[in-house]
Write a structure and sequence with these properties.
The protein is mainly alpha-helical. The protein has a single domain, classed as Amino acid/polyamine transporter I, CATH 1.20.1740. Helices cover about 70% and strands about 0% of the residues. The radius of gyration is 23 Å and the shape is globular. The chain starts with 10 loop residues before the first helix and ends in a 19-residue tail after the last helix.
Length: about 525
């Protein structure tokens, strides 16, 4: 037996970024200026624990009481499994686009089209939800009563400001993202620690006290009802892979950035959530559902009027950065679809502005649909925002699990991920565990309500059925998958080429179609 120390490094470990892309059938045509830290910052800003905790703190507390904080541990652990699977995939396929090209290369064109279609709509609804929740901070900053009309107007303002900034180009996007990262770290970790250490009004035992949210029923059901507190937090790490061709050494750095996003995001969310609970002057009112926007009052009682205003500015910066990043990500995915002729109006959506070099029409679409949804929320029931937020999270989890399932399918066919980041023998077990976690999460998100109103109780599944059904109908009638000649279903073949260091054919002309491309 040979000594492990004397074994030569496999070809896949020695490939440079351009050589790795060549094996995948692409030319290296982007500026690889993004470092590990910058890639992590992108994912962390997208994940945005400040936005996530603020958005659903009151909902989680009313549903599950203080113990709902444990969903941060549960979901963080589950999403870490998903991130590890993603890490192996992006390490073999460090190419632009994330979920769309990953599912395409792991399974096929039609499968990838459906996964990306659902993901696009989930992102658009998430943009809407973040803008709606951010309106509360804007209202508090300017002492505006948070009526339905004010929520609509302020949400529209956030969307339009983000659109204007996105129009100015990628450099502005990068600057705002860096500022948003700093705002997040101050707003969640520093403020959270301050509240826990200096403004504590409840002891740590409060996190084991349901405070009667279960009524006469079982607390288990109430706790499950608070799952959204964690499920809404832990996505955004996949954005690290969306810009793979702009990252130096992406096959190694992006998996690390994904893991860092989960770990730092989870710790930040814990500090933030715990700080709000422990510093709340009237926790009972929050748990009882009488105070539906408690965080501004908690901050003012703990930080004073001036301190609360400073925090509000920090929070608004984080919300704006989150909306900006979501708009940009959604527009790039829409653009990539349109460039391949995969959506209606693809020629219009595939246009890029000549000066700022951004997909301007895709950006307009990524803003105009959320604007329309804001109008629907304005005229709908009070629970509609929470319901569409649940749909958005369900759609994103479904898209995530499409990657996990496709990865597991390839492993069962003999695929051994060939990128530098590898889980080794644990890969199969982690893949299975990630899929099991994802199925459980989707069941929790899709579980109908109990109000007795069918349209309200089944909103999440109805929304998913409409989105998936319309996408499937278009896929089967228009057959957009036939317009694209990019490679698909080639995970095993690419792994072999990476190990051999052998490039794909016709790479000078762009992506090469594999002979046995699956649909």
């Amino acid at each position: 037996m040979s000594n492990p120390k004397n074994r030569s490094v496999p070809p896949a470990e020695r490939l440079g970024d351009s050589e790795h892309l060549a094996v995948l059938g692409y030319q290296d045509s982007f500026d690889r200026s993004m470092s590990l830290w910058a890639n992590f910052a992108l994912g962390f800003t997208y994940l945005s624990p400040l936005v996530g905790v603020y958005s659903l703190f009151a909902v989680a507390m009313a549903a599950g009481g203080p113990p709902s904080i444990f969903w941060i541990f549960i979901v963080g652990s589950g999403q870490m499994l998903v991130a590890l699977v993603f890490g192996e995939v992006v390490s073999q396929y460090p190419i632009h686009g994330g979920i769309y090209p990953w599912t395409r290369r792991l399974w096929g064109r039609r499968y990838a089209w459906m996964a990306a279609w659902v993901y696009i709509w989930a992102m658009i609804v998430t943009i809407t939800a973040v803008a709606q929740f951010g309106s509360g901070f804007l209202a508090s900053l300017f002492n505006i009563e948070l009526t339905r009309g004010a929520t609509l107007g302020l949400s529209v303002a956030l969307l339009l400001v983000a659109l204007f900034l996105n129009f100015t180009g990628t450099k502005t996007l990068a600057k705002v993202a860096r500022i948003g990262l700093a705002a997040e770290l101050v707003g969640v970790i520093a403020v959270g620690l301050y509240l826990i250490i200096f403004q504590r009004k409840q002891g740590f035992g409060i996190f084991f006290d349901s405070m009667g949210v279960q009524g006469s029923g079982s607390y288990g059901a109430a706790f499950l009802g608070a799952a959204l507190a964690g499920l809404f937090l832990f996505y955004g790490f996949e954005a690290c892979g969306d810009v793979a061709e702009e990252v130096a050494d992406p096959a190694r750095r992006i998996p690390k950035a994904m893991v860092m996003t989960i770990v730092v995001g989870g710790i930040s969310a814990l500090f933030s959530f715990a700080g709000y609970v422990m510093a709340a002057p009237d926790l009972a009112a929050i748990v009882a559902g009488r105070d539906t926007d408690p965080i501004p009052a908690i901050l003012e009682s703990s930080l004073g009027v001036v301190g609360a205003k400073v925090f509000l500015l920090i929070a608004i910066t984080a919300f704006l950065s989150c909306v900006l990043s979501l708009q940009a990500a959604a527009s790039r995915l829409i653009f990539s679809f349109a460039r391949d002729g995969m959506v209606p109006g693809h020629r219009w959506l595939a246009k890029v502005s000549g000066t700022a070099k951004v997909p301007v029409n895709a950006l307009i679409l990524a803003c105009s649909i959320p604007l329309t949804l804001c109008l629907i929320i304005y005229s709908g029931p009070d629970t509609l925002l929470t319901q569409i937020t649940s749909f958005a999270v369900l759609g994103i989890y479904l898209a995530f699990q499409s990657v996990v399932l496709a990865s597991l399918r390839q492993r069962m066919k003999g695929w051994r991920p060939a990128g530098p980041f590898s889980l080794g023998r644990l890969g199969f077990a982690i893949n299975v565990a990630a899929l099991a976690y994802g199925v459980l999460a989707m069941v929790l998100l899709a579980w109908p309500g109990n109000s007795g109103v069918v349209a309200s109780d089944w909103t999440v599944l109805i929304g998913l059925a409409v989105v998936a059904g319309s996408g499937l109908l278009y896929l089967l009638t228009a057959k957009p998958d036939r317009r694209s000649t990019a490679p698909s279903g080639d995970a095993i073949e690419v792994a072999r080429r990476l190990q051999a260091g052998r490039p794909a054919t016709n790479q000078a002309d762009g992506p090469a179609e594999t002979p046995a491309a699956h649909r």
